[in-house]
Write a structure and sequence with these properties.
The complex is a heterotrimer of chains A (about 270), B (about 375) and C (about 325). Chain B has about 375 residues and is α+β, with helices and mostly antiparallel strands. Chain B has eleven helices and ten strands. In chain B, strand 9 and strand 10 form a beta hairpin. In chain B, helix 1 packs parallel to helix 4 and helix 8 packs antiparallel against helix 9. Chain B is globular, with a radius of gyration of 21 Å. In chain C, strand 9 and strand 10 form a beta hairpin. Classes of the chains: A alpha/beta (about 270), B alpha+beta (about 375), C alpha/beta (about 325).
Chain lengths: ~270, ~375, ~325
Amino acid sequence: MIEAKRLQIVVCIKQVPDAKSVRFDKETGTLVRESAAAVINPYDLHALEAGFGLREKLGGEITVISMGPPQAMDALREAVSMGADNAVLLSDRAFAGADTLATTRVLAAAINRLPGFDLVLCGKLTVDGDTAQVGPGLACRLNIPSITCVNHIDLEKEAMLLTRTYDDGQDVVKVKLPVLLTVNKSLNTPRLPSFKGKMRAKSLQIPVWGCAELGLEPAETGLAGSPTRVIKTEVVSFEAKKEMLTGTVQEQVNALLERLKAHGMA
Amino acid sequence: MAQVNYFLTEEQQMIVDVAKNITAEKIIPVRASLDEREEFPWDIVYELARSDLFGIYIPQQYGGLGMGCFEMCLALEQLAYGCIGVTTTFAASALGGYPILLFGTEAQKEKYLPSIASGKRLGAFGLTEVTAGSDAAGIQTTAIEDGDFWVINGSKQWITSGGDAEIYTIIAMTDPHKGARGASAFIIEKGDPGFTFGKKEKKLGLRASSTRELFFTECRIPKDRLLGKRGQGFILAMRTLDLARPGIGAIGVGLSQAALDEAGKHAKNRIQFGQPVITFQAVQHMLADMAIQTEAARALVFVVARTIDTGVKDISKLSAIAKVFPTDTAMKVTTDAVQVMGGFGYMKDYPVEKMMRDAKILQIYEGTNQIQRNVIGQALNKEYMN
Amino acid sequence: MTQKNTGIWVWCETHENAMTSVSRELLSEASRLALKRGTVTCALIFGSDIALLAKEAVSFGADRVYLVDHPALSSFNDDIFTAILTDLARQYRPEIILAGATDRGLAFIPRVATSLETGLTANCIGLDIREEDGVLLQTRPAWEGNLMATIVCAEQKPQMATVRPGVLKVSEPDHLRQGEVISVECNQEWLTTNIEIISSSRSINTGSSNLAEAEAVVCIGRGIGSGKNLEMAKEVAALLHAEIGATRPITDEGLLDKALQIGQTGVNITPRLYIGFGVSGAMPHVIGIKNAEVIVAVNKDPKAPIFEMSTYGLVADVNEVLPAMLKALKGEG
C-alpha cells in the first residue's frame, strides 16, 4: 500500500446549471442562466467519491476547489456536506469568461498555493463545457502525469494501478504519485450529504482567493487570458421538434438521415 | 399553496433534507427491483449509515445526534415515501437500540450504541414467538443461569433483519413460574455460540426487508448480557414499543403521501372522455379523502412524538393512537390509490400496487391495530375510573 | 526549416498499426482547408512499425508525413505522446493542429495546447477558414446539442481543435498521390515517463451493455416483426455506432437480453440519438428515454404515443424502413 502518509487530495469541481432545468434564448442564441438550478457537475461527484474512498483506505485530507462566481460557494458547501475536509473558492471578477487554458492557470496557481498535494481528481468532463480539457491541461501546468477516463483504482506499494477506458477498450496503467486523474461515472457511486456534513458545511469558513491571493495578473485570467473566443452561438432549431416526415418510405428515410447529419449524428 | 407549518428547526429541516435526498436518489430508483427480487438493501443501509441517521435518537456521547422521537418520525416519514421495506430495516435497528439506551448499563451503552449509531452494525428486536405474539406472557424461550453465563434455549419468530442484524435484544423467561414478571431481556450478538437463523421468509409485501426465525440451542452468553434487571423484560419490551410506535405511524404517513402523490399525478395525466380523470368528482372525492386522512395522520404523529420528547411518563395510549390511525390510513389510502389508477394501479409497472401490499404489515407489526385498541381501551377504562 | 506558422497538422491515431477512421476524416478535411488557406497538410503518425501508414496518409490528402517509429510507441502513453507532439510543434510551428476527439486525443491534446500556451476547441463538428484573415472557424455543439457555437483562436498559434469522429466526410483515397515522408528520430528524452502500461485489452465492439452512457441507441419495440428485422436493426445500429436496447415486451419474450431493457424497470438512457423501431411509447418506457436529445420514432400507427415526444416521426412500416435505411447508410441509395 502507498504509505499511510495522510494523502493530500485535491478535488476540482465546477458548479453547472442543472441539465434538467436549462432553457435557451432563441433570440440571443444563449443559455438563460437564471432559468437553471445550479448543481455540482455530475462527473465531479464521482471524483469526490474517489477521494472519499482513498481517504478511508489511506487516511488523508480532501481539499475541494472550484473556480466560479460567488454562488459557486454553494457547490463547495455541498462537497463539504458530503465529506470534504477543506474548500477554497477561486473567485474574482477578472476570472469571468475564461476558456480552458485560462481556467487551468487559475486552478494550478491555487493548487500550488496549498501546503502540498499528492493527488488531483477531476471529473472526466463538465456537462456545460463538455471539453474534457481542464484535467489534462491542469496536470501539464502542475508538471505531473494525467490519466483520463479512470474506471477503477487499485493501490499498490508506492503506486496506483488504474484502469482507464478508451473508445476501443481499456488499459491498466501503473503510475506513481503525484498524479492527476479524471474519472468516469462508472468508477463509483457518489454518496449523498450526511447530517454531520451539513452541519459542518454550514459553519466552515471557506476562503475566497482572487488574483491577488493567487499572484496572478488579471490579464492572465478570464476572458483576457483566454486565446479562444466564441464569435457566434445559435440555438439549434427545434422547429423540427415533432416533425412528421412525409413521402414514400425511401423519402422519409432520406429526410431523416439528412436531419441526423445536420445534428452531427450520422 | 400553503402547507402545514410544523416550525422545524434548522437541524430538523436538515434531517428531512438528508432523508428526502436518500429516498429520491437511492431508494426510489431501486425499490421495484428490491421488491421483485426480495433483496436486502445493503447499498442503501451503507448510505444511511454514512448519513448519520441511524444515530438520530442516540445521545452524542455515544456517537449519535442526540435527538428524539420527533426527529426519528421526520426521517421515517421521508424514507417511507420511497419504500417501507427499506424503512423497516432502518426502524428495526432502532428497535434493537432503544432497549439498550433505556435499560443498558454504562458499559453496555458504550459497547453497543456507537456501532448502532454509525450504522456499522444493525440492531434487531426479538419478542414474538410461535406461542407469544400479542400475548407476551406466552414466551417459551428460556434463559438459565449457569455460573458466569446465561444459557438460552428456544426460538423467536418473524424477526425483522434477523440474520442481517448483528445486535439483538431478545426477551426470554428467566423465571417461568412468575409469568410476565419472569421475563428478562438479553443482548445477543450474531456469532454467539448456539445462535442460528431460519430461512428468509417470503412475504406479501415489505419484501426488501428480511424476516427470519432466530434459534437458540444451548446458546451461552456472558452474564453481562442481561439487559436491565432480571424480571424487567416485559416492561422493557413495552417501554421500547411505546417509544417506537409513533415511528410506525410516521411510516404510514410517508407511505400514504407517496400513494396520494402517485394517484394525483396519474389522475391529472390520464385522459378519459376527453378530459383528465382528476376533473371527475368521483375521483376528486377519493383524492380529497386521501389528502384529509394523510394530513390528519401526520399532524397526529408529529404532535404525539413531540409530546413524548418532553419526557412525559405513561405514553402507551398516545403512542398506540399515533400508530393505529396513520397505519389504518395508509391501508385505505394505498388501496384507494390503486383504485384511482385503475388497471395501471394494478400493474407492477407502477408503484402503487407495491404500496398497497406493503401497507398491510403496518396494521400487523409492532402490535396489531386490534391490540393497540385494547391498549387504548384499557387506558380509557383507567381514566374514567376517577 | 519550414516557414513559421504554416501547415495544417493532423495527429493520426492508429489502432493495431492501422489508421483509425477519424484520422482519414481529418486528413480529408485538412487537405480541403489547406487548399483554401494555400498551405500544406501534414500527417503525424506515432507508433511502432507504422512506416506503411505513410502512404495511406498521403492517399487521403497529406502532403508531408512525420513518422515517429519506435517500439516504445506501440501503446498510447500520455507523457510520451505529449512530449513528441509538443516538441515537433515547437520546432516546425504549424498553423493548425487537428486531432480526433477520441479518448486518446482528448487525453493528451489538451496537454500539448497548454504547453504551447494556445487555445484548443473540443469536439468540433465543423471546420472552415475565415475568408478575410484565414483564421480557423471551429464549430462545436454546446449544451448537449442545444447550442451551436463558433469559436476562433485568432491571436495564438497554432490553432488547435479536436473533432468528433464520424462527422467529417472522408475523401476518396488517391493512391497515385505523392507526398514527402520524414522519419523523425525518436528522442530519448521524449520517452521519459512515470506511466507504465501494465496491460491493454481492445474490443472493436465496445461491450454489450453500455446503454446508460451510450451516445446513440437503437431501440427495438413490439412492432419490430420478424427476427430478420431484428438483425437488420442491429446492422443499422452498428452503422450508426449505436447500442441496442429494447422495450419490455421484447426482453420478456427473450428476444433480447433483460439487461438491454430501457425504461422504468430497466435502464434510463441519455443518448444524443434514440431511434425506436416499432416502439409504441408506453409510459414506463418513455420515462427512460425522455432525456434523449433527438428521438426518432418509426411506427405504422400514427396514433402511437411515442410520436408525441419524438423529434422526427416516420409513420411507416418497419419492414420497409429498415431495408431503406440500411441501403442509405451503406451509401447504396
